[in-house]
Each structure stands twice: as C-alpha cells, then as structure tokens.
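User: what does the whole thing look like in 3D?
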Amino acid sequence: MDYLRTAYKTTFRWNQTDPHTSTVRWYRAPTGARIFPGQHRFGSANYSRQVIPESPFGEQKTAARTWDRGNTTPGIHGTNFCGDPSLYILGAPVLGSPIDSRADGQPACCDGPSAVVVPCCPGVGLSQHMRAVLTNGQGLAALLDNYVFDLFWDGNVTWSSPNQLACGITSQANIVCSQGLWFLTVSGIGIGVAQATTAVCQPFRLFWSQRLVNVGCTGPIDITVTQV
Amino acid sequence: MPRFFGIVFYQQGRGGWSEVYPINSPSYTAAFTILDQANTLRLGLACADVFVAGNRISDTDVLRDSFIGTLTTSQGQFSLAPNTSGPADETYRTLVQAGQLRRGTRHLHALPAGLFVNGTFTPSSPWTTQYNGWAANLVSNISLATKIRGAMAPPFYTFSAITATANRGNGDRKVGRPFGLPRGRRQIV
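Assistant: Here's the predicted 3D structure for the full assembly of 417 residues, as structure tokens:
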C-alpha cells in the first residue's frame, strides 16, 4: 500500500461521515505480495504530515504513532484485497457487509492464490491464472477472433493451457519467462516461438502483434495476455 | 491541472536516498509515465550498484493518497569500470531555476568511482551527455514546488515550470547530515 522506512501503529478513519476509527498496524509486505492496483487514500501520513488540515479519512495525523517492529502478519500473502477498488478512493461504506474471516481470524478476501514472481517482472506478484485472447485475425485467422486460452502456472516459469480445439485442431498454448523476456508458443495451430511485441508488468499485459497461424485457420492474428 | 510528487527510493549497498520529482500531470498514470522517464534518465548516470527500492506518486492536493507503479529501469546503467559508485559523501550539484526562483539544488548521489581522479570527480564526455539529458528532462517535464504557507485547503503547493538548470560544480558534500550514517533504531549487541 505504501513505502515506509519504519513500521508503526496509528489510527485510521474509514469514511468522511462516520467518526469511528480503528487502530491500524503497518507491516512489511510478504515476498510475492502484489502492489495495490491504482491510487488509494489509505497511504502513510509520513508524506503529508506538514500539511495543516486533517485528512477526512485514512490515517489521522493527530493520532498517536507507536513504533512497531513491522513483522508480517502470519498467513497473509498480500495477493488480493477486499471490496471494490473505488472504496479505497471514496472511503468505505458506513454500513458495509461483514467480511468473511478464515479460521485464523484474517479476512478471507485478502488472499487469492499465492502470487508468482518471475525474473521478467521483478518485485511484481503475478496471478497463477493468465488468459490469452486472440483478436484482429486476418484471412482465415479471423475465425479465431476472441478465441481464449486459459493458462495456468506450472510452478516454474511457464503458464500452460490444457489441450483444446482451435479451428478443429487440438492446440495448446504456453507463455514462458526466459532470460528476462516473455515468449509464447501455440502448438496445434502452429504459432511458433515469439518474443512479446510489448510487455508491461504493472498493470500486467503482454501483446504479440500479428503472429502467423500456420495450420488450419491460417493468417496473422494478435494475441493479448492478461491476468485473471 | 493536478500536481503530483513522484518519489523514487534508491539503494546502494546498505545505504539509500530518495529523489522527489514535482510533476504537473492530468492523472496518476500520466504522472507515473513522467516519473518513469525521469528515473530512466537518472539511472543513466548511475553505476550498476544502484538499485530502485520503490516509488510512489501522490497528488499534492489529496491527503494520504498513494499510487505505486513498476518502473521500467531498476538498476544503474552507466557502465564504467569498476562500475561502482564513488565516495558516498561526494555529490554533483544542480541548481534548478524557475523564473526568479533559484533553488531546489539537487545533489546527485552515487557518482561513478571510475570518474574520480585523485579524489576529485571529473566527469567524462559520456557521463556529461547523460547528465545533460537528465537536466534537459527537468526543464521539459519536472516542476519546482513551493509550499504555500498556512494553506488550510488545496492547493498546498505552487508549482513553477523549470526554465533552466545550472551545474554548480562537483565534489561538494551535501550540507546537513552526512551520507552513509545508519538511520533509525539499531540493535544493541
């Protein structure tokens, strides 16, 4: 959620109308934790303590700040967040729904499957589930427009799809991080090994421009891979 | 147009520092793009022992906001044997000018060790080329921020376009706390 040199405990307010506050502890994100997607209003007051007005919500600068060792809360992976991203900008609802908790008392929604960190995106936790979508096909490849491969992490550096029929041909897709670069292959319909045309880690998006389908629905087609 | 502070946290060995870039930009993501470019140019001056530890963008008029992105360049790119940084307390000063304002002196940490001649930092032509690119980017994309005293509502800062930069020599030690000293609590052994 933010960068700090030293962890501490302090008081947070959750929306502009409800005066209730909670004690919050900043702690180190575990390895593989993912960065919150987009901006939010629950950052540290370290960066704006010199500004006179009190924040309508988020960290309250007049509250006590107690030093904390910053040990990561056990069982937290930091791979997901609770609620809609807009709540982190507009504030939490006054009468929100109760959050389901796990047996250890931590909110169940805080953790998705453990994030994957590969050398192609250092420091960025990636989903174990990727989705490749084929679009903008030319010639017979247009028949593959909006065709989807769901790819799952193999525990090493590759996300692979199960075998599935594409243009009537049993096909299987792989994306792999090799020597810091992203590569894609699709067997069956014969899309050879190719380095990503563009690769962005945050927000994660890989793109291959006009790759040639060699078998079946032949022709060039675009391929976009995003996280699920 | 919203005004942002983009901060990059650098680390070198056991030490580190941060650099703040005031950015005029329509959105967080657009501000991050400018910060990303400034960081890439900055790391063009730095040796391979300098790494990015983190970054954040914050709108100066929004309290407690934070936006974190992934920078394109995360390690120093200036290649020169021994490809490490020189003395930690040596900096290269840049004076930032915005109209009549002549302040915001920036101290460039982590000067290449290979460019020190008899203890004096002596910029080479390739390093100067990189430096000029970084300084030109300050004029093009970065602003000079001035706190508005006593402001109780936004705006809390005035941003002025940088009109020029001036090289204020080298080898000056930054005034104030010396570099390299440990910060924060220390374990008592």
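In plain terms: The mean pLDDT of chain B is 87. Chain B touches chain A through 30 residues (CB under 8 Å).
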